[in-house]
Amino acid sequence: MSHATKEFVPLTIAVLTVSDTRSLEEDSSGQLLQDRLTEAGHQLAERVLIPDDIYRLRAEVSRWIADPQVQVVLVTGGTGFTDRDSTPEALLPLFDKQVEGFGELFRQISFNEIGTSTVQSRAVAGIANHTLVFCMPGSTNACRTAWDNIVGEQLDARTRPCNFVPHVTPKDRCESRG
């Protein structure tokens, strides 16, 4: 049985930027993700910027995971090795299932762009309560790499042989949207 359809299925996606130094107006990474998702035909649920704080990060993403309208959360920032970087630590406990291949593939693709510096990316993804969460580095180029080479295709129901759309659109969630 194929997990792909021939029709595009628009998803409702939230964007979260984790940064201690940027404002929403200066957030080129979050803006790129917002632009990419709307250009692809998806709907922006909300876009938020918060400081790199493990508990605020966990609370914000938990709110979206609990919201039946939000199907995907894109998180940019907090995946490095500074003392304040805590995105993986904040979100991994929330995942019902981790998507190990996302981080692996992101680093493989990034190697062609930034060489061995890619080992300092702790990009992760997972599914929680039928909500797909992608955590990417905070640089605009990293977000572009992730969306253009992985995320965009995996959020497109037409991608074969499989994509994540069936995992974030279970029948009960679709009915709740009316």
Automatic annotation (TrEMBL):
Record-linked SMART domains: MoCF_biosynth
Keywords from the named record: GTP-binding, Molybdenum cofactor biosynthesis, Nucleotide-binding
Protein's job: May be involved in the biosynthesis of molybdopterin. Can bind GTP and has low GTPase activity. Can bind MPT, but has no MPT adenylyl transferase activity.
Organism from which the protein derives: Porticoccus litoralis
Family to which this protein belongs: Belongs to the MoaB/Mog family.
Nucleotide-binding in keyword set: yes
Cited InterPro entries: MoaB (IPR012245), MoaB/Mog-like_dom_sf (IPR036425), MoaB/Mog_dom (IPR001453), MoaB_proteobac (IPR013484)
Pathway the protein takes part in: Cofactor biosynthesis; molybdopterin biosynthesis
The MoaB/Mog domain, residue ranges: 14-158
Any one Gene Ontology cellular component term annotated for this protein: cytosol
GO term, biological process aspect, one: Mo-molybdopterin cofactor biosynthetic process
GO molecular function (one): GTP binding
Highest taxon, organism lineage: Bacteria
Protein name: Molybdenum cofactor biosynthesis protein B
Chain segments annotated as coiled-coil in the UniProt record: none
